[in-house]
Structure formats: C-alpha cells, structure tokens
Amino acid sequence: MVIRQLYRLLFSFILGISVFSAAIAQDKSLSPTAPNTIVPNTIPTIHVGGYQFSPYVNLQQDGRYTGLTLDIINALNQIQQEVFFEFTVTSVEHRYKAYALGRFYMMIFENPAWGWQKIADQFIPLHMIDGEVFIALKAKAHNQNYFKNLTNKSVAFVKGYHYQFAHFETDADKLAKQFRPLFVSNNRASIESILRERADIAPVTHSYLQYYLKVNPQDRHLLLISDKWDQEYDNGILLSLRSSLDAKKLPHWVQLLIDNGKLAELAAQYGIKSSQ
Fold first, then answer.
1. What is the percent of the chain where pLDDT is above 90?
2. Fewer CB in a 10 Å sphere around the end CB: N or C, the chain?
3. CA 263, 267, 272, 273 torsion-angle sign
4. For 45-127+235-274, which CATH class?
C-alpha cells in the first residue's frame, strides 16, 4: 500500500515538472529574444533588373541565373549592409516597360544609346570594355573584305539587341527593310546560325565569343572574325531617380569595388577588360 502511494506521488511529481517545462518552453518561443527567433530583414531591397545577355546574365539548365551581373550584385551586397540588392528577371524586349512600372529601379550593363535617351536617370560607369564583332563561316567569307558590305547577305540579329551598324534599331519590320535578318534568341544562337549556314554574318558580343571558343575550340578554325568591331561600349549601371537608394551611395560603392580590384577581377573571369 505504501509503495503504491509512493508511485502515485512520483508520477504526480514528474507530470508537474513536464507541464512546467512545457509552459516555460512556450513562453520562450514567444519571446522576441529567444535564440531561434527569425528577425525580419529590415534593410531596403533594391531590385536589379536583368535579361539573358551572355556573359552578363546566363540562364542555366537548372533554372539558375549566373553571370557577371549576378557577381557584381553579390559584390555590392558584400561591401555594404545598408541595402540588399536582389536580381529580378525581365526580358530584353520588355525591360523598358518593366522599368517604367517600377518592377525594378536599377539595371547593370545598360547603355544610354540602347533606348534610354529619354530617361533622365543616373548612369554610373563600370569602366569595363566590351562590344560586338562580326563572324562568318571562313569557307564562305575567305577574308576581311566580306564584312565590308552586307548587301545580299543574311544577318543574324538577337531580338531586342541594339547594333550600331543597324543604327540601334530593334523593330523587326524596319530591320527587314534594310537587311535580310534572321532573328535569334541569344549570342549562342547567333554563332550556331553561322555554323549551320542559316545566316551569312552575325554580330556577336566579343566577351561571349571568347568564352564560346574556349568551351568549343573545335569551331575556332571554322569561323572568320572581323578585325573591326561593330561597336565598343563601356556600359554602366542605370539607377532610377525613384529608387529609395541615395544617388551618391551607389557610385561610392562602385568606386570601392574599383579601388580594391574586385571589379577588374570579376571582369577578367569573363574575358572583359577593365579600363581602370
């Protein structure tokens, strides 16, 4: 009888401790100072628009976006903690409307001549030199004279890209009146259109062409590359005046990345020269 009472007392004691511990645990879980509490990120997010433009923005097979634009976004996030820069996907054709609607207030590697002439926003130079060269099938072109005249030659255009030889025109109907255009979706498709003889000439971003030939060295001897560039550009960062970011801070952070050599290091990984 005594043993049974002792068991009951022990059971009641253990039960009481369990209830008390649970109450304390619940109280801790509600406490704002609890160790596992997720504190919301209170710093502003600056959305950075970007579209597939190799090697600046590349869409991988697993759906991830990579490239120099993403690398610079990461570098900007590492050099300061006042704002968080976040990549936002857009398309080459719809980026103007998306920018006007405020889907993002910043773009990296844009050029005032690429349809932004009427935008009175801030352009911040990155001092990275790139551009477009022409390519053709060596068996057909033979020498550099082939690039001097585009008459009666089919030309591969990446839809939405601005080329100097076409006076930066992107309208398909207008381009069809001046050239024999073949519209493709990206730089790789431009190169493939030449190799497969679907087009005679293609302007290709120089940095991407170097990357492509590094990965596909067997194609180098098949292509003739123009000595003269269609255009050489020093693209920069477009920042909207409507952004919550102080217009003086972004140039300062970019300059820090220039001064510490980070921008030049990132550019070199993609075969892009820094002018600083």
1. 67
2. N
3. positive
4. alpha beta
